[in-house]
Design goal:
Elements: H1 6-12, H2 38-45, H3 60-73, E1 77-81, H4 84-93, E2 101-105, H5 110-122, E3 126-130, H6 136-140, E4 147-153, H7 165-174, E5 179-182, H8 187-190, E6 200-204, E7 218-222, H9 228-231, H10 235-238, H11 249-253, H12 257-270, H13 276-287, H14 289-308, E8 313-317, H15 327-334, E9 341-346, H16 349-359, E10 364-365, E11 375-377, H17 389-394, E12 401-405, H18 411-423
Parallel strand pairs: 2-3, 2-4, 4-5, 5-6, 10-11
Antiparallel strand pairs: 1-7, 6-7, 8-9, 9-12, 11-12
Helix pairs in contact: 1-3, 3-13, 16-18
The structure holds pyridoxal-5'-phosphate.
Amino acid sequence: MNNYKIETKCIQEGWKPENGEPRVLPIYQSTTYKYESGEHLGKLFDLSAPGHMYTRISNPTVDFVEKKIAALEGGVGAMMVSSGQAASTSAVLNIASAGDNFVCSAAIYGGTTNLFAVTFKRLGVEVRFVTPGMTDDEINALFDDRTRLVFGETIANPALDVFDIERFADIAHAHNVPLVVDNTFATPVFCRPFEFGADIVVHSTTKYMDGHATVVGGVIVDSGKFDWVGAGKYPELTTPDDSYHGVIYTEQFGNAAYITKARVQLLRDLGNSPQPMAAFILNLGLETLALRMERHFENGLAVAKYLENHPKISWVNFPALESSPEYEKCKKYLGGKTCGVVSFGVKGGRSGAMKFMDSLSLANIVVHVADARTCVLHPASTTHRQLTDEQLVNAGIGADLVRMSVGIEHIDDIIADIEAALSKVDC
Ligand SMILES: *Cc1c(COP(=O)(O)O)cnc(C)c1O
């Protein structure tokens, strides 16, 4: 199965029916599972036998979708959670505790910035941001013996900076810590961060993976490649867990230690679990992911080229444009492609941006991105409004920035809508 191309994996991985079983992934809408003996169930609680015991921890429908996503990213295992925020939370807290810190690119999703800078701070976990343009020496100076990981976003939402995965993987590994990459915007169709040295991938599946704006969800994928024992600073993985009669994750679960601990400890304790129905709907989205990404990119590129030549547009950011400062990284990490998100500045700043958005009719103003329908958002006054001016600059977001998530409608209709709206902007 591993030799199949990504388009084939989107369809065929995960649920693989046996003789006479349903062709399509069944929904196991059950919180609980029956066992013949108490002894067997006891083994499940000791983690000495595989199987489902309670849907907060695992569920067959969810499990098949996790297997598909692990195959798409090329990892040893995946864990679905209730949202992208839950994925980032668990990915970090699985290996960082009060007193620890981690190094993080400043060009990330605004919700993640809040989570890391405000909520994690209250838990005693400190984020140290890498601001754009920092040298390797400046980044290395952020590390100390309590640094547990490095975090970045493949294509930053909404700044669209392309994360230099290889560079940050090298820096992380020189300090014996893993690189965690939020691969939401790229999806494994365009970039598989493990191929460039990343160790853990997280996604908000709410975006392109679902693709239809129907279900909020998240996932963590483990490459299985990070050497937790050799790193010598992850006792939570390499010494006994009292909550499981002294299980040592690296001994019992080998290269799936990280993802197993995330499930049996954090999902069990924090309870940010996905629903079976949500997994089923996500799976439908995943089946067409490769097809949709191609069209999102094609349409996004056409919109970016149109805007680039428009007199009322001051700048356009689309990593696959040759004029983009991100273009070289886009070629290296994304094969020269990118998702359907285009950001641009409307002349006339904040008021020009607002007038343009209010004048669109096909494209809707919604707090969403990366689904089949074209939509727009003004990050500075919505998703990123909690950020300080300095955080906005570091995240690459100006007051004139409009983020357009180009959908998979016919390109002529999308461009006609933009043209009509721009004609209403006076500048
Ligand atoms: C939306 C988003 C998140 C948060 O995901 P939710 O599913 O909304 O919790 C995290 N990272 C990126 C890049 C996102 O776009």
